[in-house]
Amino acid sequence: MTLEHAILGFLDRGPMTGYDLKTRCFDEAVGHLWTADQAQVYRTLGRLSDQGFVRSRIVAQRGKPDRRVFTITTKGRAELTAWLHRPVELSPVRDPLLVQLSLAAQLGDPEVLVLLERARAGYQTRLDTLRRAQADRPSLGHAPDARSEALYDMTLVAAMSAARTAIDWVDDCMEKVGRGLPPAAPRATSEGVA
To answer: What pTM did the predictor assign?
Structure first.
């Protein structure tokens, strides 16, 4: 998924400011799927505008700074539709925990357990947050229809399933470490074996 297509999808639901896209869409509605910081959102809106996929207008406000409101164009909607029809390539796994764990041979079993306990707590927090999101039903920018709600629910179920699977995996790892891992092999140094 590209940030550009996510923004086009949100704007397809209705006009929004960059701030709305960041807070109501990326932070509140789809933070479990995709994140974006404010600078990324505004840079992407600039690119989308240059490509003719979105346009903006300034809306004056009393006692507040003017707002720049973005809308999707016909060309942008065509790009979004084309993207929705394309097969999605699975993202490569980029998990710092897995890299950290794979390089943790120098740590003792108690230290590895601490690493895993922290990871488990993080996954549990993620799962709890997703459960609250499912109960709260954040809007995807505007009031979604029943079809949008059903599709959104599928994303929450997938994210919750992944968190539960990760918790189960960590529990299995902790059990294995609790039984004791094989000792670490001596490490080689530039002077020879350490």
So the answer is: 0.72
